[in-house]
Amino acid sequence: MDLNTVTEVVRRPYDRPGAHWRDGDAWLAGGTWLFSVPQPDLRRLVDLTALGWDALTVTDAGLEIGATCTIAELYAFAPHCDSNAASLITTSCEAFLSSFKVWHSATVGGNICLSLPAGPMITLAVALDATYTLWAADGSHRTVAAADFVTGDHRNVLGPGEILRSVDVPAAALRRRHTHRRFTLTRLGRSTLFTVGTQTPGTDDLTLTVTAGTTRPIRLMFDSMPDATTLRRSLDALPDDVWFDDPNGAPDHRRHLARHFAEEIRAELAGTGPPSERHVHSIGSNERFRSFDGGAGS
């Protein structure tokens, strides 16, 4: 889509471009959403890809994902990621409702900052206990937990001129066992609910991450494996207004799915349920796709 109100595109921004932020600016990375809808308030685009940030950096501390890393780059990295999280990275990339062309443009940071309930990079980051490094317009920076970044549908904690610089995933989170459930109305449709369960190796703890069906990411954490009743009560205690309502699912439907999938995840990670053979539940195809790792990581 032509953005006919934009009068300038900054192709060579400063290393810390936030200091030059002004009303009417927008950060440009992949631009897959920016150019898909009218943006009548925009006057200038600042191209972050020109800054040359590293896409992916593996250290002893974990994995750093540059905000301008494309979905295609992250997807290509997953098979070479020597950790239990590799299949979750693959699953999250495949949850995009987009073509391979979009994968080569859309960025991890763009999906997170758009802050839509169905953003799969949000699901991935929250499930893996990631933190975000944010650059402020005054030259300072801060670190925000991924679970606290998105505050509602299309809303987050970013201030004017603030930039998401990187997503940092701790090494311990990359080693966790995990399993997931995702529901769509059609085989390749947008997520109605995306739920991930993780567990620290050698323990019986449980962290349940619920997204897509909620206006913001929800995390339920248990030091030891809860029973079915305790887990259901924790979900039922969530406020009514946290459940998202759109053509992909009503709040009651999403709450029902969360209860059902949470119990499947609990049973699987507790070793009392069958290993995962479902990747996506879909009304349209009624297919169950086998997970790449055959279930929870070991």
UniProtKB/TrEMBL annotation:
Residues 1-174 form the FAD-binding PCMH-type domain. Pfam families: FAD_binding_5 (PF00941). Residues 271-298 are annotated as: Disordered. Gene3D superfamilies: 3.30.465.10. PROSITE patterns: FAD_PCMH (PS51387). InterPro entries: Diverse_Substr_Oxidored, FAD-bd_PCMH, FAD-bd_PCMH-like_sf, FAD-bd_PCMH_sub2, Mopterin_DH_FAD-bd. PANTHER family: XANTHINE DEHYDROGENASE FAD-BINDING SUBUNIT XDHB-RELATED, XANTHINE DEHYDROGENASE SUBUNIT C-RELATED. This is FAD binding domain-containing protein. It comes from Rhodococcus kronopolitis.
